[in-house]
Amino acid sequence: MLQLAVGADIVRKDGVGALYKGLSAGLLRQATYTTTRLGVFNIISEDLKARNQGKVGLSSAQRYCPMPRRVLMHPHTAGPTLG
């Protein structure tokens, strides 16, 4: 309910266009973040495939690698951590 009151106050003071202020900056930030995350994932994925003779998945040696390395290899943590 509070969100509606804040939105109504913004429209009343600055007009409907004020609701879209900052949208382009937010979209640019999200696009940059997403492309970085996907790019890092593709690089890591291709490297793992090359190390695993083209097979998808981890080799037995990589399956037991230290936890920080496994976390960084995951696509959902590679982007926020490295990007």
Structural account:
This protein is mainly α and 83 residues long. It has one domain (21-82). The protein is built from 5 helices and no strands. The protein is rod-shaped, with a radius of gyration of 21 Å. The two termini are 36 Å apart. 1% of the residues are buried.
Number of helices: 5
Determine the N-to-C terminus distance: 36 Å
User: What is the molecular shape?
Assistant: rod-shaped
Pick out the low-confidence regions: none
Helix content: over 70%
Largest sheet: none
| Topology as a string of helices (H) and strands (E) | HHHHH
Q: What percentage of the residues does DSSP assign to strands (E)?
A: under 5%
Q: Return Rg in Å.
A: 21 Å
Number of domains: 1
DSSP summary, beta strand count: 0
Average pLDDT metric: 77
Structural class: mainly alpha
Write the layout of secondary structure elements.
Layout: H1 2-14, H2 23-51, H3 60-63, H4 67-73, H5 75-82
Helix pairs in contact: 2-5
Brief description of this entry?
The protein is an all-alpha fold and 83 residues long. The protein has helices spanning 2-14, 23-51, 60-63, 67-73, 75-82.
Considering the chains and any ligands shown, give keywords for the structure:
rod-shaped
